[in-house]
Amino acid sequence: MLSAADLKAINEALVTFKALELAGHEVSKETFPLPNDLSERLSSAAYEVHRGRGLCQIQGLDPTLYSEADNLLVFLAIANYIGDKRGIQDKKGNVITHITDAKAWTVPYEKRHVVHTNQHLTWHCDMGADVLALQVRQVAARGGATMVASSWKIYNIVASERPDVIRVLAEPNWPVHVSNRKSRHVLASLLEFHDGKLLMNFDPSRLGTHPAMKPRRSRPVAIPSLTEAQQEALRVVAAVAERNSLQLGTKAGDILFINNWALLHARSAYTDSGEEAEGQGTVNQRRHLLRLWIRNSQLGWKIPENLRAPWEAAFSYADEGYVSGDHQNGAVTQLRYPVMPEPDYKPARYTTGSAAFVIEDSESEYDDE
């Protein structure tokens, strides 16, 4: 919980940063300076995320006291202490994604990705992200809870109850959708022990065939379907995660940091409110989170080659020497930090994964040549 002194220091640092007339991507420890006491506690939080429980929840901020732009700056500044590198979340270069069901959007749910609806989001991790950072701008009227489950606990229970499932998860034959690859998929395992750690790379909606991905002359091999054993493994992991989950109580202003290799997360269905409240006029309570993918240069986990492909799609523009030979490292001309959701929802021709990573938006990518 941030103290009154912490909030005062954050506000003073915000004034200092804005006086420099810099852009959001220039937020750093140097340009958004926080006092030693708060800096040290945030650094300890980074250690807890990477070497401890894998989770940190910062409370005490009131988003109604800041403009939308200032809320984003504060989020970036605090997140910078947990991870100093920011991943891109689509080929447009978006570093920030707004997770919401905006009232202005008229596109029907069946044409949206599930993260942009009010529906249940199944157990997964955001493939490719080291740490998932979420800023809660507003909570839903009902539901919309974020749940987490330990990958280690899931592994231990499944290994005890269904060792056959562990063997299936560890086989490097899962077809994973990826960006910037000629084949548009790689074969990888969903878990691996590396550098003394268990890494789980689990997102059911980013695996197997995809209805929008058709073979063509330049990419004649279709993405393989999942086997019955693989489908069963996904069901087992989801069931174990569900019965061993922790629901995070959040309110507007909270910031969550989740170690994406060590924890799975899910979201319950929710209901927003725009109804008339007696004596209060219109109440417009709509769930709205900002998502950021980050990596800590010092504490970030070493990534085994088998799991690098999704990571490369998010972080290869800040290359650490992991980029493999067939990675088409298309230049990101400008990193984008959108302050608000797009006023008009534009369905991508092809998104993949529970995290809605947009592989490609151009029609030519999918039309037969």
Automatic annotation (TrEMBL):
InterPro entries: AlphaKG_dependent_hydroxylases, TauD-like_sf, TauD/TfdA-like. It comes from the Eukaryota. GO terms for molecular function: dioxygenase activity. The keyword Oxidoreductase applies. The keyword Hydrolase does not apply. It holds the Pfam family TauD. Keywords: Dioxygenase, Oxidoreductase. Residues 25-293 form the TauD/TfdA-like domain. This is Taurine catabolism dioxygenase family protein. It comes from Grosmannia clavigera (strain kw1407 / UAMH 11150) (Blue stain fungus).
